[in-house]
Glutamine--fructose-6-phosphate aminotransferase [isomerizing]
Amino acid sequence: MCGIVGAIAQRNVVPILLEGLRRLEYRGYDSAGVAVVKDGKLERVRSTGRVAELFEKSVDTQGLLGIAHTRWATHGVPSIRNAHPHLSREQIAVVHNGIIENYEELRVQLTAQGYEFTSDTDTEVIAHLVHSHYALGNTLLDAVLATLGELVGAYAIGVIAADDPDHLICARKGSPLLLGVGVQEHFIASDMSALLPVTQRVIYLEEGDVAEIGLMGYRIFDSNRNLVERAIHTSELSNESVELGEYRHFMQKEIYEQPQAVANTLEAVCNSQSLIPGIFGAEAAAIFADIESVLILACGTSSHAGMVARYWIEEIAGVPCSVEIASEYRYRVSVPNPKTLVVTISQSGETADTLAALNYAKSTGMDKTLSICNVPESALIRNSKLRFLTRAGPEIGVASTKAFTTQLAALFLLTLVLAKQRGRLDHAAEQRHLHELRHLPSAIQAVLRLEPAIAKLAERFADKHNALFLGRGLHYPIAMEGALKLKEISYIHAEAYAAGELKHGPLALVDKDMPVVAVAPNDALLEKLKSNLQEVKARGGELYVFADAETRFESTEGIHVMQMPEHAGYLSPILHTIPLQLLSYYVALQKGTDVDKPRNLAKSVTVE
Ligand code: G6P
């Protein structure tokens, strides 16, 4: 949802800004732009292509102070005129991530004041508002502060003025922004990956913060406009973790990182002999003991992780569990139960709908909150009482892979902890599950060896326009995740059904042009699933079955069976996810789509 970078230094900042944008491109890639202060003027370069094109267009641009932006369009089509930075009367330049909700009335007001609008964006009102206050003789900081008082909505902004080469002003409310601390140079960015080439020292700005940044230092004001000190953290992110290395795409790299990502996520637990609630936070034991149910809130892939967890939590821990898509829950009148554990799941920790759903739940009196998230210091983590950090490392590919499997690992831990606390997990069962968790990374590794066979299978999908994914029980959400992956990166229309529902409608769609993918683990529902598959075969459909080793499915005319190396019991959904990720990846390769940056999508959706 748009990436922002800004810098003030004693060297040309344009290469720093553009490299930062390249690393933030996963947040949006409809257009990109940069503006610098040079000799009392603003110089701006914008492009509707990728950041690589902006690199070419700005070879002659130089400056010691600048801001840059990569866009995911909300208001106004992707075009040069809508690309950021936006200027006001060649004096003020602004980059913005978020949505200004009252932009229409501000636009009317500013037009009446004589401001001319050159874009269709909501952002341009910010530039003109800042200008209107700056023109009255205010400092740039004061002009931005006055502007913020007039804005309704969410923003992270960076602002510079043509005649003030000494200051970069930034502010955040509802969208992430951090301040990078260098030696006599300072930076801002939407996330840390953008700044790794220049600094690892970072301040996570808090909700409502405004900062005035100069070469030698910075001042931060909180939402009450008091001058505040914020802690400087040293980021643990390494440069390699955000580089492609030997891989062709980040998605491929991230699929292959799953054994390590899951091992990292489980590290604390796998090194110990028993499970304790404390892995979710100091207050977890008391909170978990006082709950009657679990409510999981999430979006996209993260919501699929929640749906798997529902099966685990009800079956293993015996705790009633419901899962809701965050964007639905936040606007629905539901019946709050203060004895509900509200679990939010998010890779980024900044998805607007998930954050709003959490806040809505809290506003109804449900304050027992746990966030499962991949980004420390994210808004979701900070707004929850309990937290569990998945340690997947940065996920750059827009289609989520390793974040999902690590979320599942974390949710299985939650299930076991709840079960143990309720006396539903004896010592032997606990040890058995711990053993299975320790084995999980190598089990994932074994599944990854199916890659060549799946690459071959993918050739059969490339010319298809539709696909059905079937699963039952724990594997129904995995079928949903498989369908989502295929949609996202290969643009093939894919639907997932609980296999038992096939006969209630989707069977009408089945013919030789409709590949049907079935997730067929060796569990209690296998025989039922086999009958569902016969229903497909009898209608001439092509079946692609991901079956466990012991299922005795065999490839025959119209049925292509891919044998999984082992059956992982409750952890089977994690293993069954991998071939579906690989399938969508190879279908996308066949189709030649932009795997890491599929059209119209963005990695972190920080707007509604
Ligand atoms: C976007 C991404 C998805 C992701 C979803 C939720 O739509 O493209 O991959 O699953 O947001 O994101 P979160 O960061 O909250 O997990």
About this structure: Residues 371 and 381 are 6 Å apart (CA to CA). The mean pLDDT is 93.
